Amino acid sequence: MAVRREASARRPIVSSSQIIILVVVGVVGALLLFVLSGAAASANQASNNRSVVIESDQQATRPSAAPVGVPPSAPAMLPTIEEVITTPTPRPTNARPAGPYVGIVAGHWGNDSGAVCPDGTTEQQTNLEIAKRVAERLRARGVWVDLLQEFDSRLTGFQGDVLVSIHADSCDPIDADPPATGFKVARSQASAIPTVTDKLVDCLRGEYEKSTGMRFHENSITRDMTSYHSFREIDPNTPAAIIETGFLHLDYDMIVKQPERPAEGIANGILCFLKTQL
Ligand SMILES: [Zn+2]
Hints:
The chain has 278 residues and is α/β, with parallel strands linked by helices. 46% of the residues lie in helices and 11% in strands.
């Protein structure tokens, strides 16, 4: 026991090979820590990315709820590529677009059916089908278009280059002379800018006749048209007109089955008017 103790006392406390082992273990340990902390950071990043996609998906399902004009405040709010492609850019509420700006009201949309035909076709559907096509045609020509409901809140104080409301007449067989077929265009009786608005009416009438081949139905412009509620709601300096595209009974083949033609007439009428205002 004593010899062993003596021999042990003569040996150095830590041999050089033990120092090398300690250094190697230290270096390996440090490397391990570095690798582990890197892995944890990328896992964190991946989880952040997942939350971006989830947030974007939620936004995509309710685009109208997104606050208009509020820029994303943090990188986590950046939209996905899909969102950028599919979400229309909202118009800033306080700024007019640089080009022409037109409001198209799809009559009765969002409120009631309007006239109803025996086959279930409603005036509201007919108006909306035409209105959507008018909007598409104008947008293709660089015009900014808002498609509006009958009592759309955006009508209050609406300031634009044109507002046109699209309606259609009754689906009941009407025994009248002249027969209940044809279209009508009217402006507000109390327009603040009658000369300008008359140009809009003339353009709509001329282009609608050209596109549809329909006749203007004289003598049946009612007070419902000339005192149309939107005329009182919008800014008085916005040229506005209402068009009755035809009678759902006798003009069914044109306005229900071929909405492209009435839409072409209305879009061209609006473009004709915009040219007169350049
Ligand atoms: Zn109507």
